[in-house]
Specification:
Helix 1 packs across helix 10 and helix 3 packs across helix 10. About 45% of the residues are buried. The protein is about 25% helix and about 25% strand. The radius of gyration is 24 Å and the shape is elongated. With about 375 residues, the chain is an alpha+beta fold. The strands form 5 sheets. Strands 1, 2, 7, 8, 9, 10 and 20 form a 7-stranded mixed beta sheet that branches. Strands 17-16-13-14-15-12-18 form a 7-stranded antiparallel beta sheet. It starts with a strand and ends with a helix. It has 2 domains: about 240 residues, FAD/NAD(P)-binding domain (3-Layer(bba) Sandwich); about 120 residues, Beta Barrel (Elongation Factor Tu (Ef-tu), domain 3), CATH 2.40.30.10. It contains 10 helices and 21 strands. The structure holds flavin-adenine dinucleotide. The site of flavin-adenine dinucleotide has 38 residues, from helix 1, strand 2, helix 2 and helix 10.
């Protein structure tokens, strides 16, 4: 009987398979690693200079920190360098493949893993003989199973709920699933954002005690851009605060407001209209209007929702860490392992999700090896 069946030939599944020679990957796509291919604008942001659990939304930061430490960014970069790929820092400590995400995919496939492509996993059962994985191509049998089937984002390139369904069928708790690293839709008070579609500017975003300073992008659906993507990871409901300017500059009373602010003019005009102030000379503003203008430095708004799974880079929530050991094995079902995005661990923008996929896959592979020798 085979040692391990790995569900999903994505980042976590392929990486784990390196360490598990007696494994078979089951992948329903016609090709492996489709998400890696399109990630990071086609250049895949593999990891970050600063890896720690503080950049993750998860059910247990200690757990995540321990798993990250055992296979951190240094080890990952060393592994890639040895294989001939030296990722480059493009912005904010983010490491990208030098030319294309195919460089990473080639490395992940270089050990020639056994992959059953076009193989749709439908469920898993545990029998006296071992684990039986039911698929459209028939049943597969193994001593251990690694669920590395990812989240719900980007169904068009293979995302499915199978990992959560398998976990639930064995009695695992699934922490609430939501699209994350995604744009936010707005309520009617902020419909003025939509008129600014295409405008990108720097802003500071505060949400649930976290602060992100980066670009925001107004779109036809609401608001997006890296700062908003990160905010979406921590936003549950209620207000987030946007600072379009850190403070109001000294303004000449003789000049029109929109000519004096260091912000796109179209934005300033729409902003002023939304807060009921005419674009007039600063000297003509009432005291109360001057106060209202300070909303530029602290503009609270409650998003209506997100752009959804089809636009989200990741799924937050997932298999509860309370029921998972540090070797990624289920506390409920010996021999059943999990890795990657299917777990209740979601990183910020910046290579954190691939780092998690690789770190957790490494821990799972070690755990599986140990399980198989015992
Ligand atoms: C557009 C986009 C850009 C991104 N860019 C970055 C980035 O630059 N940096 C970063 O860190 N993260 C990025 N991410 C997030 C990152 O891609 C994921 O977090 C990561 O791929 C998760 O790895 P995984 O192995 O858990 O899941 P995946 O890589 O999604 O792999 C899961 C695999 O399981 C397969 N599968 C699913 N259901 C079944 C089934 N029923 N039967 C058989 N196979 C199945 C899927 O087809 C897939 O191949 C991006 C995501 C998107 C959508």
């Amino acid at each position: 009987m085979r040692g391990t069946l790995i569900i999903g030939a994505g980042a976590a599944g392929l990486f784990a398979s390196r360490y598990l020679p007696d494994s078979l990957l089951l992948e329903h796509n016609p090709k492996p690693a489709q998400k890696i291919k399109i990630s990071g604008g086609g250049k895949c942001n593999v990891t970050n200079k600063e890896i720690s659990s503080s950049h993750y939304h998860c059910g247990d930061t200690n757990f995540v920190q321990k798993v990250l430490q055992k296979y951190d960014n240094t080890k990952l970069l060393h592994f890639l360098a040895k294989a001939g790929c030296r990722p480059v820092v493009r912005k904010k400590g983010q490491y990208f493949c030098p030319h294309s995400s195919s460089e990473l995919i080639d490395i992940l496939l270089s050990h020639r893993p056994q992959i059953e492509l076009g193989c749709e996993v439908e469920g898993v059962e545990k029998t006296n003989q071992g684990f039986v994985v039911h698929t459209n191509k028939g049943d597969y049998l193994a001593k251990t199973v690694l669920v590395a089937s990812g989240g719900l984002s980007y169904k068009k390139i293979g995302a499915s709920p199978i990992g959560y369904e398998i976990a639930k069928s064995f009695g695992h708790t699934i922490m609430t699933l939501r699209p994350a690293l995604v744009g936010l839709t707005v309520q009617k008070e902020q419909f003025w954002f939509k008129q600014l579609a295409g405008i990108s500017m720097r802003a500071r975003v505060e949400v649930a005690g976290k602060v992100f300073e980066d670009d925001i992008l107004f779109t036809h659906k609401g608001i997006s851009g890296p700062a908003i993507f990160n905010a979406s990871l921590y936003w549950e409901r209620g207000a987030i605060i946007l600072s379009f300017l850190p403070r109001l500059p000294r303004l000449s009373p003789h000049k029109i407001i929109s000519t004096q602010l260091p912000l796109p003019k179209r934005f300033v005009k729409a902003f002023l209209k939304s807060i009921g102030i005419e674009d007039k000379k600063v000297g003509e503003l009432s005291l109360e209007e001057k106060k209202r203008l300070e909303l530029l430095c602290r503009y609270p708004f409650a998003p209506a929702g997100t752009f959804g799974y089809e636009r989200a880079e990741v799924t937050k929530g997932g298999v509860s860490l309370q029921e998972i050991q540090e070797d990624m094995q289920s506390r409920l079902v010996p021999g059943l392992f999990f890795a990657g995005e299917v777990l209740d661990v979601t990183g910020e923008l910046g290579g954190y999700n691939f780092q998690w996929a690789f770190s957790s896959a490494y821990a799972a592979a070690k755990g599986i090896k140990q399980f198989l020798v015992e």
